[in-house]
Design a protein that fits this description.
The complex is a heterodimer of chains A (412) and B (415). With 412 residues, chain A is α/β, with parallel strands linked by helices. Chain A contains 11 helices and 17 strands. Chain A is 27% helix and 22% strand. In chain A, helix 1 links the parallel strand 1 and strand 2. In chain B, the strands form 2 sheets. A 4-stranded parallel sheet of chain B has the order 2-1-3-4. The chains are: A alpha/beta (412), B alpha/beta (415). The structure holds flavin-adenine dinucleotide and iron/sulfur cluster (3 copies). One iron/sulfur cluster binds next to helix 4, helix 5 and helix 6 of chain B.
């Protein structure tokens, strides 16, 4: 019997699992895949927390300010490289535009736009979906006081790729920058840049090197050698794009944190149903076990608490029938909040479709959409699966997932 | 939904996010390999238009299934790749591997055949495999890498017939053991220990005279022979399956084949095999949950690193060996979770792939070395015999089947 079974290994599920394991609970995470973490930019979007907390039914409205802070604290303890915005901070996208960074790695933080200086954009040869010309023109527009220069960098290890004209992904490059050879190469390149700039007489100016696909966070010293180098110039990481190197290394890191705490992970397994009984004649019922499809057979897994973190429409937790005639939550068959217009032609307009999800009480327990009563006493819903929020327009995806994941773990 | 429709649904589920390719160990080291997205969902569309481009690259997929467990959309990628390989063998655009490659496919695919040869004269075979000259000849003659580790041969595991006459009629509890070629011919000792452990927990073990499960044949392109082996083995198991006797596998790749491929064969036993096959520790955990696993453990004061073989990960049952071993007082164990060892069945034994296989395995080797250097553990554990050989080859750290730790705790073995 597990203290808790978490269904879904995305940001919300990992957060819940790790926090609960930190609290000494016996936790099992059952997940089909790795979730949307591979889309993660490296920055936790929190959005306008104070404003959204007063938005009717928004997930933030379920929590007090301390709970939301506790989530941030959790991330900062897990990844000490993360810092928070007491003043407004910004990071570069891979397009060279500027995006807000709420909880972000220190090495992504951009200098002040009012200052003056020189950016040297290091362009890795053959990096897929990276367009230096666009980046340069965007950066020049965003930072009028800064000069933007380009320097290409060639990693011999990818020579074979280059020769056959194949591009390398950001994940391939991140692996190189994290290796000893990659670190040495970067250190050399940066030293060269410094000498060139000094030669050109720009001694007094600020110089910063900008590099895409650099991930200097989430190192796990118990499994990897860390070749930290002090570069002779400051280096700024760009945030990630799909398939995201930040997401990849973060997902790996979360997995190791969880299993090192004694957590058990079942990957490649799909939860399909639950069985449970009413505690008494009336609601709420209590869930005893979930039914999980492993290869070749069906498993019945028992726990005291269940956390549903299956990621809504994109994560696979909500299934839409043919021609959108039906829509349902796939594991517990929970009632969904579905806006009236959801199947209208404006389906992909941001608002209605994003709001689909499960309504809960303050303890994240699923509610009956009509009567507003708690349905399952020991089931808690977290992350994208929650109703009444929109990660795109409200820009609070990471914030809601971390906050709800942490909060659910505290009540296990 | 019939199988084809199911596949269509999965195909359409592909969101082109490239996450699978980003995680594929072969794509990481081999630029010529199009990666799972390229080979699976993308090419599947061409195939359906009956257009098959030169698909020799299909053979580079090591069938480690990393792509499949990573895909956020549940696309059955390796199924598409395997289907395509079958089609490529048959189709008009048949890829024609040279004689040497075909012969190599034949030898590596027949772990069983090699095994039988090896155990006739284990000492001699081991000596011969260690001889550089012989390895050189294997590489030149068959394209089997001379640098790669080849498993050694020992005293084979004996067949244990069911003496009770009809299956399932014995009074006591029994299990059928599917040892697989590796345990049978290379590591009979592991099989014998397992039988003793099962006896200790109250089960009698039957070991019918199985053939190779078929996975190595499949991986080396011999689909027809693989299917025949499957049918033969299923027929041996049928009476036991009908009597509700569990089938236990100690090799993770055999276990996966029994659970994933056998249910697709056309035989009555195919309906039962998936649900009745258990990885050894999966079975023990089930007993533990029912309160039927004896917990008379002796203290074992040791720390271990653990490598989860890809083909166990793909079974979707987690890490039951860790759950069981953590019940033993004194045992500390860490799941390194640092990716595939690189061998993927017989992939890494092929000469042109040796260096790539070592590169695939390097994060795992690094994790092992870092752990040992920091004094976190002194030994490695893993269920897959091939991973074991590869980890020892890549790190020189002693590596064992987790079963041995359990056997020590039960006081069945002492060293
Ligand atoms: C393209 C994109 C980019 C984003 N970028 C950012 C960003 O830069 N910063 C930020 O803060 N937020 C970002 N977000 C938003 C944020 O990542 C999401 O809010 C968050 O990832 C949702 O996490 P989740 O854990 O709820 O769901 P998911 O990440 O979707 O995870 C769901 C998990 O459940 C599993 N699953 C589903 N059904 C089952 C089942 N039946 N059985 C077993 N397992 C199942 C899936 O395999 C998956 O692992 C982004 C989102 C998207 C889509
Ligand atoms: S198969 Fe899955 S992981 Fe690969 S591109 Fe398609 S959706 Fe992405
Ligand atoms: S099975 Fe393994 S080698 Fe084959 S495509 Fe998938 S990840 Fe790559
Ligand atoms: S040899 Fe082991 S790690 Fe490597 S593919 Fe096989 S099962 Fe996976």
């Amino acid at each position: 019997m597990w203290d808790a079974i978490v269904v879904g290994g995305g940001l919300a599920g990992w957060t819940a699992g790790i926090r609960a394991a930190q609290r000494g609970k016996k936790v099992l995470i059952v997940t089909e895949g790795v979730g949307t973490l591979y889309y993660f930019s490296g920055i936790f979007d929190y959005g306008d927390v104070a404003g959204l907390r007063h938005f009717p039914k928004h997930p933030y409205s379920l929590f007090d300010a301390e709970t939301i802070d506790r989530g941030k604290q959790f991330i900062k303890e897990l990844c000490p490289e993360y810092i928070e915005n007491n003043k407004s901070r910004h990071a570069l996208t891979v397009l060279g535009t500027v995006r807000q960074g709420d909880l972000m790695p220190r090495s992504m933080v951009l200098p002040d736009r009012q200052e003056q200086g020189i950016f040297v954009l290091l362009v890795p040869e053959g990096l897929k979906d990276f367009f230096p010309e666009i980046v340069v023109s965007n950066m020049a527009r965003e930072f009028p006081g800064w000069q933007v220069k380009v320097k290409r960098v060639h990693a011999e290890i990818l020579g074979e790729w280059e020769r056959i004209g194949k591009s390398a992904s950001g994940i391939d490059y991140a692996a190189i920058w994290r290796s000893k050879e990659g670190q040495n190469l970067l250190a050399q390149e940066i030293e060269t840049i410094k000498r060139e700039q000094q030669g050109a007489g720009s001694k007094s100016e600020r110089i910063a090197v900008v590099l895409p696909s650099l991930v200097s966070e989430y190192f796990d010293a118990s499994r990897t050698k860390i070749y930290g180098k002090d570069y002779s110039l400051p280096v700024i990481e760009m945030s990630s794009f799909i398939p995201s190197p930040h997401g990849r290394y973060f997902a790996e890191y979360l997995k190791h944190q969880f299993t090192d705490l004694g957590g058990e992970l079942m990957i490649g397994a799909r939860a399909a149903a639950l069985t449970g009984e009413p505690v008494s004649d009336k609601q709420p019922k209590s869930c005893q076990e979930i039914i999980v499809h492993s290869m070749g057979k069906v498993l019945h897994l028992k726990a005291k608490k269940f956390i549903l973190a299956t990621g809504g429409l994109l994560g696979g937790g909500i299934k839409v029938g043919i021609e959108r005639k039906s829509i349902h939550e796939d594991v517990f068959d929970l009632p969904l909040f579905v806006p009236q217009e959801w199947s209208a032609s404006r389906f992909f307009a941001p608002q209605p479709f994003a709001q689909i999800g499960v309504e809960t009480d303050n303890c994240l327990r699923p509610l009956d959409t009509n009567q507003g009563q708690v349905i399952w006493d020991n089931v808690h819903v977290v992350g994208r699966m929650l109703a009444h929020w929109d990660p795109w327009t409200q820009r609070c995806g990471g914030g809601v997932s971390v906050t709800s994941g942490c909060a659910a773990a505290e009540i296990i | 939904m019939d199988v084809r429709n199911e596949l269509t649904a999965r195909l359409d589920a592909c969101q082109k996010c490239n996450v699978c390719t980003a995680q594929c160990p072969v794509a990481k080291v081999n630029p010529h390999f199009p990666g799972p997205k390229g080979l699976g969902p993308d090419m599947e569309r061409f195939r359906r238009g009956q257009f098959i481009p030169g698909e020799t690259t299909l053979d580079d997929c090591s069938n480690c299934k990393t792509c499949e467990v990573t895909c956020p959309s549940g696309v059955k990628i390796t199924e598409m790749i395997l289907d395509a390989r079958r089609a490529a063998r048959k189709g008009p655009h048949k890829t024609m591997p040279g004689v040497k490659l075909r012969l190599r496919g034949y030898v590596l695919g027949r772990a069983e055949y090699l095994g039988k040869l090896g155990v006739l004269w284990p000492g001699m075979a081991n000596q011969a495999l260690k001889l550089n000259l012989v390895r050189w000849a294997l590489e030149k003659g068959l394209g089997i890498s001379q640098k790669g580790p080849l498993p050694a041969y020992g005293k084979p595991l004996e067949v244990i017939e069911d003496k009770a006459g009809r299956a399932g009629v014995t009074s006591g509890k029994q299990v059928v053991y599917f040892p697989g070629c590796y345990t049978r011919y290379n590591e009979g000792e592991t099989g014998r220990i397992m039988i003793k452990v099962l006896e200790h927990i109250g089960y009698k073990t039957i070991v019918p005279n199985f053939h190779c499960c078929g996975l190595p044949l499949e991986a080396n392109g011999q689909f027809d022979k693989a299917r025949k082996n499957g049918l033969y083995n299923l027929e041996l198991m049928r009476p036991y399956l009908e009597a509700g006797v569990p089938v236990i596998a100690s090799c993770t790749s055999c276990g996966l084949t029994l659970k994933e491929d056998y249910p697709k064969l056309s035989a009555s036993a195919a309906q039962m095999i998936g649900a009745q096959t258990y990885d050894l520790f999966e079975f023990l955990w089930l007993l533990y949950e029912k309160g039927e696993l004896p917990l008379d453990f002796q203290q074992v004061n040791a720390s271990f690193g653990y490598h989860l073989p890809c083909h166990l990960k793909a079974q979707g049952i987690g890490t039951p060996a860790l759950r069981i071993l953590r019940l033993i007082p004194g045992v500390k164990i860490r799941n390194l979770d640092a990716g595939c060892c690189g061998v993927s069945g017989s992939y890494g034994f092929k000469a042109e792939k040796y260096d790539k296989a070592m590169k695939i395995g390097s994060p795992l080797f690094e994790a092992v070395n870092v752990g040992v250097e920091q004094g976190d553990f002194q030994e490695m554990l893993t269920e897959c015999g091939v991973c074991k050989v590869q980890i020892q080859h890549g790190t020189s750290i002693p590596t064992e089947h987790p079963l041995r730790i359990l056997a020590k705790a039960y006081n069945i073995i002492h060293e």
